[in-house]
Amino acid sequence: MPLYRLDEPAGPLVAPVMVAAFDAWIDAGGASTAACSLIASPADVIATFDADALFDYRARRPVLDIVDGTLAELAWPSLELKRARHGGRDLLVLSGPEPDFRWQELGHDLHALALQLGVVEWVSLGAIPAAVPHTRPVPILATASRPGLLREDENQGPQGLLRVPAAALSTIELTVSGSGIPAVGFFAQVPHYVSGPFAAATIAILEHAGRHLGAEFPLGSLPDEAATQRQRLDNLVASDAETQSYLQRLEAIVDEQRIPSGDELASEIERFLSGETGPSEPGHGPLGGR
Question: Residue 30: left if φ>0, alpha if ψ -120 to 50, beta else—which one?
Answer without folding.
Answer: left
